[in-house]
Amino acid sequence: MIVVLKPHVAPEKEAELRQYMLSMGFTVQDIAGESTHMLGLAGDTSHLNAETFARFDIVDHTIKVRESYKLANRRFHPDNTVIDVNGHKIGDGSMAVIAGPCSVESEEQILSVARDVARSGAAFLRGGAFKPRSSPYAFQGMGMEGLDLLKIARSKTGLPIVTELMDNSCLDVFEKHVDVIQIGARNMQNFSLLREVGRLKKPILLKRGLANTIDELLMAAEYLMAGGSFDIALCERGIRTFETATRNTLDLSAVPVLKEKTHLPIVVDPSHGTGHWNLVEPMALAATAAGADGLIIEVHNTPHLALCDGAQSITPEVFHTLMGKIQRVHEAVSDN
To answer: Range of 307's domain?
Structure first.
């Protein structure tokens, strides 16, 4: 529900109304319009109606919000959210590129890739320390040792690190040492994990599930925001369809749809979205043209020897050329 206030409301009157809303168990969000001031209520508002706040003479009228997601809803937050990690931003109008290998394999490997992508203009370093794999026999990542190597790469390049959290057992470590916590596609609806991660109030990259709708993605973000984390980037990484020519079907229509529905920044993953390194460039450029705020791209110095997802990884040389093209497309479609 959105409560629209009358013009020129006295601060003490608004504070009284706000306290009443909080006492009812709602989260209250300020919504500043061009000529109006509104308060958005997040929580179970099903029992509320136009008469609920009638005793407050500062209330002009109320608006029922149809969607279940409130905090992630653009109606509650008209301005775009900008995530700022030590000056590296997502959602500020620039094109934020997150790049690195699928998995951390050695200190030499992660340092080499980190230095290469940093020189090419990447804003964040990705790398998996803990890997969710379809086969129990596949490489599962280096675990804590891999996380330590990511920290070394961060200290050498200055790039904030983005890595995936698998379960609640590593919450304390991720809170202390990871700049952006990635919630993978398989955990998008792991609601107990989302609740705990939300309480960390850390920047989060939330990936869309393999067979989830856009509204389900937004409800997953709502879990995180209800816990207190508001710096969330939504990631379109392809969904599972009947098509077998690509690993997944990259749903680029999700970018403009999400832009209408939410204020959260949108990142696209053309690597997982296609599964083929030669398709990464055209889909990265298409995502840029569609209005994405960022890209997450798998880069490996020797893809043919990669322990994970080598087929969809591009080399640092290909990445360097691609970054120039991304910048040109972004400048062509940007409003800035």
So the answer is: 83-333
